[in-house]
Amino acid sequence: MMGQLLEGSSAVECYQKGIEIMLKEKEEKETLKVAAACKNDRDEFTDKALEADPDNAEALQIKASYHLSKDEIEEAKELIKKSVSLWLSKLEAADTGNVADEDFDPVDTCPLAYNARVQCGKILIEVEDELATDVLETLLDEDDEVPDVWYFIEWANYLQGQEFYSNARHYLLKGKEVYAKVKYDDAGLLEYRV
């Protein structure tokens, strides 16, 4: 519109700017379409995975995360608890040595990778489930030099109320130690409070 009101190089600049804006808007719309398609594919594949194996811990966790993103807390809580029920007790038994060597299969014990279990802990914190501390403690047993896990377990304890504040403080201080020890590079992580 401005290009029609102006003359010469000013008019050309306005037209070029208008074209740039239109191209950017088109690109943003295409990005949103791709994101929506990916989300639909993810939902479809998760549903198919659960149809094939209703006890697929990872698919249950992904579905829980999806429900959490839609603020469907109860559905998310139900799904994440089912996911955890499939592996946590086996992992805790293996950690304490209560599994015979011939019965021990690390993949069967816990089919989820470390990072997936970190995400599980985060979901449990968000749905305010006390299982979060159990899951996060198994992660510390496996690798106690991951600052995120210390801070998540601190937060999970803090959310359980005043009687858990001393536990939360312990985990916070230990998390700060680990943060410094491993030279962790996430300044936002240090903004935690207790």
From TrEMBL:
Descriptive protein name: Assembly chaperone of rpl4
Organism: Biomphalaria pfeifferi
